[in-house]
Each structure stands twice: as C-alpha cells, then as structure tokens.
Amino acid sequence: MPLDSPLDAAYWSTRYTLGQTGWDAGAITPPLRDYFQQMTLPKTARILIPGAGRGYEAEYLHAAGYPNVFVADIAPEALRDLQQRVPDFPAAHLLEQDFFALSTAPPYDLIVEQTFFCALDPALRPAYARQCAALLRPGGTLMGLLFDTEFSQPGPPFGGSQAEYESYFAPYFDFVQFETAPNSIKPRQGRELFICLTRKA
Ligand SMILES: C[S@@+](CC[C@H](N)C(=O)[O-])C[C@H]1O[C@@H](n2cnc3c(N)ncnc32)[C@H](O)[C@@H]1O
Question: What's in the keyword line of the UniProt record (predicted)?
C-alpha cells in the first residue's frame, strides 16, 4: 500500500524537532546490552548502526572500547544529540546518509538493528535485507530486534511477523537466533523478536 507521505529526511527531522520520538528508549535496551556484553568480536571490528537515532548503542560500544563504530541516520538532529552526549565519538563515524546509499566497502563485521526496519516503508523490506547483506563481510552478523506484532495505528512503526521477515533474510543469511526476546523493555515485552543472522558466504 503506498504511503500518504514520504518517510524522508524532512519527515524524520520534524519528528526530532517536535520531540515526537516515542520510539526512543532513552538508553541502550537490555537485549542489545546483553548481546554486546557476551560477544567475542575483536575490538577492531567495524560496526554499523543504521537508523541509529540518538545512538545509545553506539555510545555503549564506544565506551566499551570499540573504536570503529559507525552510525547512519538521515536526521541530523539525531546525530547531533549523540555528538553532544559523547563529544569524543569520532565525527567521521556520524554518517548523515541514506542507509540504502551507504558504501559497501570496506565491509562491516556487525550491523545492529533496533526500530529502524519498522520505520521504513514496508515495500523496502526486501531491499533492507539485500543492503544489510551487501554491507557485511561473509560471516558477518546482523543482530537486533524486530517487532512481532501488528499496530492498530498507521505506521511508522510498521509491524509484521516472523514468517514474513524470514522470507526477506533467507536468501542472504543463516539464522542463528530468530525468537521472541526474553528481555525486552516493558512496553515491547513478548512483541519483539531477537535476531542474530550471519551473512552467507
Ligand atoms: C524509529 S527511529 C529509531 C531510532 C533508533 N534506532 C532508536 O531505536 O531510537 C528511525 C530512525 O531511522 C532514521 N531513518 C529513516 N529512514 C532512514 C534511511 N533511509 N536511512 C538512514 N536513516 C533513516 C530516522 O531518521 C530515525 O532516526
């Protein structure tokens, strides 16, 4: 179904300017924090957080000693917020760019997803899976959270189901985890899938 208005940079900038950011958890969420705490990636790993918003995950990883964390967002207000909160976060790693136009070289080792996929026009979902695969090295990981629910209001956010999502990712990824997250924040409990997918060779 075509959307009434484009979900472009002007749309998202306005949401930040007006403070209409209900998706923003205000801190890193437990599923991502717990994953980061146990992951064995070398500290030199290249990590991308697309549609990062205010970038609490980037702040966490930066503080944990990962120097190659990149955030991409089309809303400059979101990137500015991260820059102000974390002044020593490398400015060159704040990519004010469309996710679909990001350079695929050099490749990333890890992509982190949280409420970006659900913010996109659902017609872009196959392209999202394809672009994540293009951005990752073979064996690289796409991990994070996807809503496993339908919303009564018109999106964004746009909901969906595990079966639907699997069809987008299966051509490019092996599924390590794709299950209800046990530790979502309260308003999302039982309505989020934790995904950990590795890019096929
Ligand atoms: C619902 S917000 C989620 C932000 C963040 N992940 C969070 O959980 O707080 C969606 C974000 O994606 C950004 N965005 C939307 N379309 C984009 C695109 N094509 N490329 C990059 N960022 C995009 C918006 O500016 C917004 O910051």
Answer: Methyltransferase, Phosphoprotein, S-adenosyl-L-methionine, Transferase
Q: Could you give the CA distance from residue 119 to residue 95 in angstroms, rounded to a whole number?
A: 18
- Indicate the pLDDT class of residue 2, thresholds 50, 70 and 90: low
What does the block give as tokens for 65?
A: 């000693």
Tens of pLDDT, residue by residue over 14-56, are: 999 999 999 999 999 999 999 999 999 999 999 999 999 999 9
Orientation angle between helical segments 9-17 and 76-85, nearest 10 degrees: 50
| Closest ligand 1 atom to 9 CA | 25
Separation of CA 76 and ligand 1 centre (Å): 11
Share in percent of the chain as helix, strand, coil (round to 5):
35, 20, 45
Which residue CA neighbors atom 5 of ligand 1 most closely?
53
The rounded Å distance from CA 200 to ligand 1 centre is 26
User: What homologous superfamily is domain 31-199 in, according to CATH?
Assistant: Vaccinia Virus protein VP39 (3.40.50.150)
Question: Vertex 179, ends 121 and 24: CA angle to 5°?
Answer: 50
Domain map of the chain by residue range? 31-199
CA-closest residue to ligand 1 atom 14: 51
**Regarding beta strands 94-95 and 69-72, do their DSSP bridges make them parallel or antiparallel, or are they unpaired?**
parallel
Query: Closest ligand 1 atom, CA of 157?
Result: 1
